[in-house]
Design brief:
Blueprint: H1 8-13, H2 17-35, H3 40-63, H4 75-91
Length: 107
């Protein structure tokens, strides 16, 4: 059955970017835990440091105004926004239920 005129395949392929990133990060988190003998908190800290490094690389690129997107990094403000996003995500446990998750296939 199609959803909003889309085939089930299109619905799965076009998951929103938040859900796609969440799935990708969760998959890597689980794989890392399975391959190593480290605590989950260590893996999470490593992921956050990697995100910081990605921010730094992208910010450096945008400081030279090579990108037409118009974003110019404001490191202190940007890190504050990232910190708030981490805090919001970590405390949002009740909002994420099976009923609120996107449909990813059909039974």
């Amino acid at each position: 059955m199609a959803v909003s005129g889309k085939s089930p395949y299109e619905v799965v392929v076009h998951l929103d970017s938040d859900a796609e990133l969440h799935h990708l990060l969760m998959s890597e988190f689980v794989r890392t835990l399975e391959r190593s003998n480290v605590a989950p908190m260590h893996v999470l800290q490593t992921m956050v440091r990697s995100l910081g490094a990605i921010y730094r690389e992208i910010a450096l690129f945008h400081q030279t105004e090579q990108c037409p997107c118009g974003w110019f990094p404001e490191t202190a403000a940007d890190i504050g926004k990232l910190r708030m996003s981490l805090e919001t995500g970590a405390s949002r446990s009740e909002e994420q239920t099976r009923d609120s998750m996107p449909v990813a296939g059909q039974a």
